[in-house]
Specification:
2 copies of one chain form a homodimer. The first copy, chain A, is an alpha/beta fold and 408 residues long. Helices cover 38% and strands 15% of the residues of chain A. Chain A has 11 helices and 15 strands. Chain A has helices at residues 3-14, 69-81, 91-102, 115-130, 172-182, 207-220, 273-278, 289-304, 307-329, 353-364, 383-403; strands at residues 36-40, 43-46, 51-54, 108-112, 134-138, 164-167, 186-192, 194-195, 203-204, 223-227, 250-253, 264-268, 333-336, 343-346, 367-368. In chain A, the strands form 4 sheets. In chain A, strands 4-12-11-10-7-5-6 form a 7-stranded mixed sheet, with helices on both faces. In chain A, a hairpin with a 7-residue loop joins strand 8 (194-195) and strand 9 (203-204). In chain A, helix 2 runs antiparallel to helix 8. The longest helix of chain A is centred in the last third of the chain and has 23 residues, at 307-329. Chain A is globular and about 60 Å long. The two termini of chain A are 43 Å apart. The interface between A and B is large, with 105 and 105 residues.
Chain lengths: 408, 408
């Protein structure tokens, strides 16, 4: 038995199902490791000593590379002074000022620990300001794992979602209908940065959709809430809808903000400042100064380097390389979404048999991909990493071509 | 303007109200600092260079002392390997095994980041197992800051609390009535380790209440849920109701678990294992290995040292010292709850004028107390610290005696 299997057996005894949540490897093909021992730059090493070029980046947080020297130096310096006490450190103010300075839609910022903390606080602020109840969310969109939004119904009640109304992402007619349904009770419209639902092709927000979402929120006096937890800082440093010219009232951030340090944020505009002050949200560790120092260092480094352009350049190289490989084999491999947050899905693959074979083959060639979740590039990936990845995807696509021969 | 005032002014521009949540110094007398610069052992230093012996311990997390050498060494060693990757490190299994080994009621453990994550997951697990909806909570009890439990209504909806039924802590008749009201829909009974509501005298759970809570949960087939977030590891290493001989089905932990590192946990027994596996709760940083290494080191050190006995001994010294001082001045100062989680309130002090004067005077003598929230001792406090504290409380009580002369 290898170390991963041995740890899984021990885990099964003391953790329900052996693991929980989005990092549960039971949802991945067999042979995917559950446990890791090392992470550095764009590479992770599992407990059996296998090293991978990582295209999940810890499901997003790692944007500058694991153990980025600048981020860790800032964290270490803050750690030497204090992390938590009976109030925050000065770095809280610096971080809030930095976000307000960086994000055009932001007049203020608050901080927490989970993306779910941030999305939930956005709903509360929208409701506190408007004194209304209804919240619009896109069908199938992920906004966290609290009872109001967790994708599985177990343990939730009907009342947890009593005031949610669903629309179809990028469908203006559907969004309008949902607004009409909410009527005078519309408190907020929640939009993801783009459609990044697991197991589905990704879709960039269309300019028409973004503009309509803003206009419908304005007409109703409701909040436009951008869930930038997953995409934030990878599309545009000022917010993922900046390229669309549409500014949300409230934004939820987390994942990449602290390059792996646990931090989340709500930013908002002046209209929602009083309401943000009225709600009571807090957590024992929300003032942790080390994670704030990491966030300040992360945002500064993203701003002073070409990190996003670098991720886009490498993402395009990966996407076009895979496309060329798939075309040569006659495989229909659909790549969707921003190249720096790639998604790869196969035609005629409802059970992900092709996707699983593709990714497990790549894994055996030292490249960690995901069969049905969007992936992430980072500033730590190099041209050489993409070459190694393309070698692995070639093996993966070859395996798919061999197991699933063309029927033509 | 001092540095704290200058930072508050800057904060007011970029953070709603200048600060949020339980660490907002606006709820404290003027002169309490909002911002800190240093924390070490039992001492914190504010941004203007004033050092205090800290009896808040960051509102609980600091149980072994800020920057405890053993905890920080363990964290540092883990940090050198990895914090987060695409899955947990081996330390996850070690921590779960350690909690199951340490907590008699626990057959399994899960981890998250906030106390609220843990209490919310307990509700979800109770509901998933029982397929019922109703949850009993004590009037005025604090169980976190999600919409279902946050103490302020702003931003919440009636439906967020549609299935809560309230009882009075330590009142068996009231608890029975609440159970009857829930009827066949009773999913869980939430109890705090003891009554530690802000602004109220604390009350230890009576054996009658604890026994009745267990029996009523059993009769209904519901979960007994112990919220041990605030008190956990300061009363009994195995859980705060161990001395009462009453074991919960599910327990929520956080604060002291990682000695200041951001971590929370749900532990439960085998009856609720399947349900815990069925719910989907997760967060980007919940597998952070550094906080888990800190937790393992914290629990080991609490077990191998006399930390709890030490806190009790010093807590008794503080309590009896203050009592003697108050008696000599004829001041009615009510000290309640466990001595290691002290609460000090004054008679005829609805507006906390006495409490504010008492604590602000102590603050000026280098001792950080709280006028209306329970306080915390730690293993890092020393006999000398208590002597210094008693000097400060003497000054505080003298000030109260002078400003509020006895009317007799």
């Amino acid at each position: 038995m290898n170390r991963d299997a041995s740890l899984r057996a021990r885990a099964k005894a003391v953790i329900p199902g052996g693991m929980w949540g989005h990092m549960n490897a039971n949802g991945l093909p067999a042979d995917y490791p559950q446990f890791f021992v090392q992470a550095k730059g764009a590479r992770v090493t599992d407990v059996d000593g296998n090293e991978y070029i990582d295209f999940m980046c810890g499901f997003g947080p790692m944007i500058l590379g694991y153990k980025d020297a600048d981020v860790e130096a800032a964290a270490e310096a803050q750690r030497g002074r204090m992390d938590m006490a009976n109030g925050p450190a000065e770095i809280l103010v610096e971080l809030a000022e930095l976000l307000v300075d960086t994000i055009p839609a932001a007049d203020w910022a608050m901080f927490s620990k989970n993306g779910t903390d941030a999305t939930t606080a956005c709903l509360m602020i929208a409701r506190a300001e408007t004194r209304r109840t209804k919240i619009l969310v896109a069908k199938g969109a992920y906004h966290g794992a609290a009872p109001w939004c967790t994708p599985k119904p177990a343990g939730t009640t009907a009342e947890d979602r009593a005031h949610l109304i669903h629309y179809t992402y990028n469908d203006v007619t559907s969004l309008s209908a949902a607004c009409e349904q909410a009527g005078s009770e519309l408190a907020g419209i929640v939009v993801s940065a783009f459609r990044h639902d697991a197991r589905h092709d990704q879709e960039m927000a269309t300019p028409e959709f973004a503009t309509a979402a803003r206009a419908l929120a304005d007409q109703a006096g409701a909040a436009l809430i951008l869930d930038d937890v997953r995409a934030g800082f990878r599309i545009d440093i000022g917010g993922s809808w900046e390229p669309l010219g549409v500014r949300p009232d409230l934004s939820a951030w987390s994942k990449a903000l602290g390059n792996g340090h646990a931090i989340a944020s709500v930013t908002g505009n002046d209209r929602f400042r009083d309401a943000a002050q009225k709600i009571f949200v807090t957590g024992s560790f929300w003032c942790g100064a080390v994670s704030m120092a990491a966030a300040v260092a992360t945002v500064h480094k993203l701003k002073r380097t070409d990190a996003i352009a670098h991720m886009i350049r490498l993402g395009e190289k990966l996407r076009s390389g895979v496309q060329t490989q798939a075309d040569a084999l006659g495989i229909e491999c659909r790549q969707s979404g921003p190249v720096q947050l790639p998604m790869m899905l196969f035609d005629d693959d409802a059970d992900f048999a092709k996707g699983n074979l593709f990714t497990i083959t790549a894994l055996r060639h030292g490249v960690y991909l995901h069969p049905w979740h969007n992936m992430f590039l980072s500033a730590a990936h190099t041209d050489d990493d993409i070459e190694i990845a393309l070698n692995a995807t070639q093996h993966g696509l070859d395996a798919v071509a061999q197991r699933f021969p063309l029927s033509i």
